[in-house]
Design a protein that fits this description.
mainly alpha, flat
Length: about 100
């Protein structure tokens, strides 16, 4: 586990000891989403203010694909308020195709 992940894991495990499972899930999701938002906005903002970052066209395609996947997962979660086994298998297949696309590119 990278060093930056230890405080997040500690907060999540500590939250599990003091809350029920439903609150733990909310805490874990909030932890992941908050960490990603911080990494994208703060770390990328600081590094680009020090030195400009070149944007490659392939990165734009990757972002579009990942946004479509994210919207699909959001739809899966909001449609029935839970993920079914078939939806999970479908997401694993999409991940395999995306990984193959990245490798073959």
């Amino acid at each position: 586990m990278p060093a930056g992940q230890y405080p997040k894991a500690d907060i999540t495990v500590g939250g599990f000891e003091t809350t029920d499972c439903r609150d733990f899930f909310d805490l874990a999701i909030g932890n992941v989403v908050g960490s990603n938002i911080f990494n994208i906005l703060m770390i990328l903002g600081i590094s680009t203010s020090i030195h400009p970052v070149a944007l490659q066209p392939s990165a734009v395609y990757d972002c579009i694909i990942l946004m479509v996947f994210s919207i699909l997962v959001l739809f899966f979660c909001w449609s029935k308020k839970r993920l079914a086994r078939g939806e999970g298998i479908f997401m694993i297949i999409l991940y395999a195709f995306y990984t193959a696309y990245i490798i073959l590119r």
